[in-house]
Design brief:
There is one protein chain. With about 500 residues, this protein is an alpha/beta fold. It has a domain at about 280-495: Nucleotidyltransferase, domain 5 (2-Layer Sandwich). About 40% of the residues lie in helices and about 15% in strands. The chain has helices at about 5-10, 15-30, 85-100, 120-135, 140-145, 155-170, 175-185, 200-210, 220-235, 240-250, 310-325, 330-335, 340-345, 350-360, 380-395, 415-430, 445-460, and strands at about 40-45, 55-60, 70-75, 110-115, 185-190, 240, 280-290, 295-305, 365-370, 400-410, 435, 480-485, 490-495. Helix 11 (about 310-325) packs antiparallel against helix 14 (about 350-360) and helix 15 (about 380-395) packs across helix 16 (about 415-430).
């Protein structure tokens, strides 16, 4: 009886989700992937219910034979036929059944495992043996290679003996001809995708940035793909490029195919694309400052958007949707019109609706903070400079994001803005063409409500506050691109030491 996909693809399989996301990203970008070095047509997850022995990830390539790659995902793998080594035995038996499957009668499918931890010597030996199988025109030639001194015959024969033993114990009958052909398409991939320092993660995110209409959201897309892969495993999901894009819309919007990845794009030494930064994006900036209860924490949040009209419209739509909700009583709806977002989400009924909208909003946030005991001896001028002037300086000096307008309810924002502009001119010898918005500027109310909400949620999370549940930080954490404790210098980035 096939195992339930909900059990086989449980949400605890974090590594499996990372591996699946790697192939989903390639499906979106149209990049080629080994072992066929071809682009991907579909990605399927947890397919044991459909008769696939290696069921974790099945990739169908976009080639004339519709060749497939069948992968069992193991966090760690040891190459050995030992009876206690259940993981490798499972991979070999599943691979053999895939090789013998009538659907693979032409022999174009590949099969094997993906793993995070494996002995480099063992992996190298597996690759050597399987490469030798591919480059041997007959089984006689292949099996004679174990006698060649330059092929490290002991390791060569040891791996083949392990495969023979596992298949024999499983009571599979096989000839040398079949074993030779089986090894031709046996693969093991070593995926380092669980660490922030992973080059494959960085390369994938860079590639994703090239297909998005908002490239800065590539990291968000990567995180979302990992979530999709874990959810998809529970329902034996299959994805094509079109179906995956529809699933991601409208949270993520993609360029048309004619403007996506150029295979000849200039890359650096890590094969990461180098973008033309001559055309910066035009942005709007909102800055909010909050001091948590009992001055336990002081915090500034800066919200940045490159489409203020769209973001403001989204915020207005949230309240309209809230008023139309059948879950709320008439008295609740009367409160909505004149209440700001940070007041509304104190109501658990409102929050359950609003937070789902907040998590999909398109903006970036930058957080600067210090705890009260860390800056208690600082003069007010230093607090203002480090907590507000310098953060605004960072935004105004960014050559890739030109700030058009600054929005804020901070009383002395004009002085803070002027100080930041002066520092940009003195440090970088560049003029600043930004201005501070008037109190009646269009879209001002909406972006300031959003920046106040981001500031309050962040301050509540970092302090001893209990205005909101601490879990609310989860709804904005993928929007926080940078954070810094201005007193200690501790820095937070989305992919390294995140703030939440």
């Amino acid at each position: 009886m096939a195992q339930s996909s909900e059990l086989a693809g449980g949400t605890g399989f974090v590594y499996e989700g990372h591996v699946a996301a790697y192939f989903l990203a390639a499906l979106l970008t149209g990049e080629i992937r080994p072992p066929l070095n071809s682009s991907i047509r579909t990605v399927a997850l947890q397919q044991s219910a459909f008769g696939d022995p290696l069921d974790d990830v099945i990739v169908t390539f976009d080639d004339a034979h519709e060749a497939k790659l069948h992968i069992q995902v193991k966090r760690s793998l040891r190459i050995s036929a030992a009876e206690s080594n259940k993981d490798f035995r499972e991979v070999v038996k599943g691979s053999w059944l895939t090789y013998k499957n009538p659907k693979n009668h032409l022999g174009y499918d590949y099969y094997g495992a993906a793993t995070d931890t494996i002995s480099s010597a063992s992996l190298r030996n597996v690759k050597t043996v399987c490469q030798a199988a591919r480059h041997s025109h007959s089984e006689a030639v292949f099996f004679s290679r174990k006698n060649e001194s330059e092929t490290s015959s002991v390791e060569f024969e040891s791996f083949i003996d392990d495969i023979r033993k596992i298949l024999s114990v499983a009571q599979f009958n096989f000839s040398d001809f079949e074993l030779h052909n089986f090894l031709k398409n046996f693969v093991i991939f070593n995926f380092d995708v669980m660490t922030h320092e992973s080059l494959s993660n960085s390369e994938t995110i860079n590639r994703l940035s090239q297909i998005l209409t908002t490239p800065s959201r590539a990291h968000d897309l990567w995180e979302y793909l990992k979530n999709i892969s874990r959810e998809g495993a529970g329902v034996s999901a299959t994805y094509s490029q079109d179906s995956l894009k529809r699933l991601l819309y409208p949270l993520f919007k993609f360029k048309d195919k004619n403007s996506q990845i150029d295979p000849a794009v200039t890359t650096n030494q890590f094969d990461q694309p180098i973008f033309d930064s001559a055309i910066p994006s035009i942005c709007s900036v909102a800055i909010a400052n909050v001091v948590a209860k009992n001055e336990d924490l002081a915090l500034t949040a800066i919200v940045v958007t490159d489409d203020l009209n769209k973001l403001a419209k989204e915020v207005r739509t949230w309240k309209e949707r809230l008023k139309r909700s059948s879950l709320l009583i008439r008295d609740d709806k009367a409160l909505i019109e004149n209440s700001d977002l940070n007041e509304l989400i104190k109501n658990v009924h409102f929050a359950s609706i609003l937070m789902q909208d907040l998590v999909t909003a398109d903006f970036s946030a930058y957080i600067y903070y210090a705890r009260g005991n860390e800056i208690s001896d600082w003069p007010p001028e230093k607090v203002e400079r480090e907590l507000m002037v310098i953060p605004l300086l960072h935004r105004l000096s960014n050559k890739n994001e030109l700030t058009e307008m600054v929005y804020s309810k901070i009383k002395n924002i004009d002085f803070i803005f002027a100080s930041a502009v002066t520092e940009v001119e003195n440090r970088y010898h560049r003029s600043v063409n930004s201005i501070v918005s008037s109190s009646y500027a269009r879209n001002r109310k909406e972006i300031l409500e959003l920046s106040d909400l981001v500031a309050d949620i962040s301050a509540n999370y970092l302090s001893t506050g209990s205005i909101y549940p601490k879990e609310y930080i989860a709804y904005i954490k993928t929007r926080i691109r940078y954070g810094e404790n201005i007193a200690t210098g501790e820095k937070h980035k989305r992919d390294k030491n995140p703030i939440a």
